[in-house]
Amino acid sequence: MKEQLVLLKTFNLALSKGFKNHICILDEWINLDSIPTQSLLQRWLREKHNIKLAILFRENISSGIESWDWLIKGTEVVYRQYKTYELALEAGLLEGLKLIK
Q1: In-domain check, residue 27
Q2: Above 80 in pLDDT, residue 63?
Q3: Domain tally for the chain?
Q4: To which H or E segment does residue 9 belong?
């Protein structure tokens, strides 16, 4: 398994909202200018902007259809269906970025 990188569209929006992908090596911060993982961007939204994004699993018992959805604390609940966890997370990240003024 590998960490999922965000899509270019999501990365560009994150950059426009002030996201900086950097690491600290031997007490020196190095800017990576590279596409972050979904989990890193989700953490940045949570820690820097207090945007809490959750991914939900849904199963329709009568039809047996399984899907994933996202929810951001404090926003309207809308039911969406994504085939994978990663697709739901990507969509939620985009919406979370749009909340940053």
Answers
A1: yes
A2: yes
A3: 1
A4: helix 8-16
